[in-house]
């Protein structure tokens, strides 16, 4: 399966947010830790709703968290 053409800075943003864990982020956005790990690793493209929730948690615009590589 090909990787989605979306990359992200979630790992860096989690680190800058006091080393927030994947589980903590998942709890705040309503998904599992495994889902956060897959999104972070670029193995899974989040829904638009989840992408917006992630960017809200970090107080960043969507394009500061995710990049389209297509």
UniProtKB/TrEMBL annotation:
Keywords: DNA-binding. The keyword DNA-binding applies. Pfam families: HTH_3. Residues 20-65 form the HTH cro/C1-type domain. Gene3D superfamilies: lambda repressor-like DNA-binding domains (1.10.260.40). InterPro entries: Cro/C1-type_HTH, Lambda_DNA-bd_dom_sf. It comes from the Bacteria. The keyword Transcription does not apply. This is Helix-turn-helix transcriptional regulator. It comes from Stakelama saccharophila.
């Amino acid at each position: 399966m090909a990787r989605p053409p979306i990359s992200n800075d979630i790992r860096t943003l989690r680190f800058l947010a006091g080393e927030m864990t994947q589980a903590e982020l998942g709890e705040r956005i309503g998904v599992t830790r495994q889902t956060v790990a897959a999104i972070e690793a670029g193995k899974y493209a989040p829904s638009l709703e989840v992408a917006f929730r992630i960017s809200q948690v970090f107080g960043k615009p969507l394009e500061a968290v995710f990049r389209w590589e297509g």
